[in-house]
Amino acid sequence: MAKKVSLDRRIELHLLDKPYVKVTSLIDVRYVDEALVTWKGTKQNYPQLGLLLAIDLSCNKLTGEIPEELNSLEELVALNLSRNFFTGKILQKIGHLRQLEVLDLSRNKFSGSIPTSLSELTFLSILDLSYNDLSGKIPTSTQLQSFDPSSFSHNRGLCGPPISPNCSMVEPPPRKPAVGGEEYCDEFMKWFHTGMGLGFAVGFWGFCSVMFFKRSWRHSYYRYMDNAKDWVYVSFVLLKARFVRRIKALSTRCD
Asked: Which residue, among 119, 110, 99, 118, has the nearest Cα to 46 in the 3D structure?
């Protein structure tokens, strides 16, 4: 890295051509030791960095997991992988990026818990892990608990400060279902429907078998059905006749 030259550091390139020399050039290059970056609508000033190291791959359609080699970029200051389709877990050794000040992994499909090494990033000033599938307790540290709850929002499995006082409010301890609980009812209804179907099949085919092999029963059944049909027919005719008489009687009274 080049040596710092002044308080007002900027890139300067001086090319001096001497008319009396055929080819003479002097190049004086000084690097920027201060950077102004616009991040999420806010201008962030990074003084005394030497060379600002930032990775911004946001708003692409990148898939897969974050490569482990990213942990070796120990001078990384800003990392933005938001609005992609990354999966898997957040790097467990992300705490090795000691200089990291901005981390945006929002709107991906990261799962698992937030690595505890994230609490070791003492320079972290902007964090956004929202809209993922993260779960578990947020690591405890003064740094992480100081962020706004929106930095962890829309991760239904996350719990703990700053989004909730404790995890018991988000993830109640598992308990055995009660005897009259939903699981018991589902099991009962499953066996009830199975038994009802088997009973219908056995009864139907048993009845058909008896009617087929037992002639006397078959004749008795047909006789019973004929009598039932006649009874229904006679009842309907009598009811119709009674109804017609009442209609005629009402019409006569009206006249």
From this structure: 99
- Over the stretch 73-94, which tens digit does the pLDDT of each residue have? 888 899 999 999 999 999 999 9
CB atoms within 10 A of CB 5: 13
- Give CA–CA dist 5/31, Å, rounded: 9
Helices within 177-214 (DSSP H only)? 182-213
Torsion of CA 48, 51, 53, 58, to 10 degrees: 100
Confidence band for 39, pLDDT divided at 50, 70 and 90: low
Task: Name the residue with tokens 């120990």.
Answer: 74
Rounded distance between C-alpha atoms, residue 20 and residue 1, angstroms:
35
Six token digits for residue 134: 């993260």
Query: Residue 18 burial (CB < 10 Å; 0-12/13-18/19+)?
Result: exposed
Tens-place pLDDT, residues 236-254: 999 988 888 888 888 777 7
Please measure the distance between the N-terminal and C-terminal CA atoms of the chain and give it in whole angstroms.
Answer: 119
CA–CA separation, 159 vs 137, rounded Å?
A: 5
Report the alpha-carbon distance of residue 12 to residue 31 in Å, rounded: 8
Both tokens assigned to 162: 């700053």
The three-state secondary structure class of 239 is helix
Q: What is the DSSP letter of 120?
A: G
**Model-wide pTM > 0.85:** no
Per 3-state DSSP, what percentage of the chain is helix, strand, and coil (rounded to 5)?
40, 15, 45
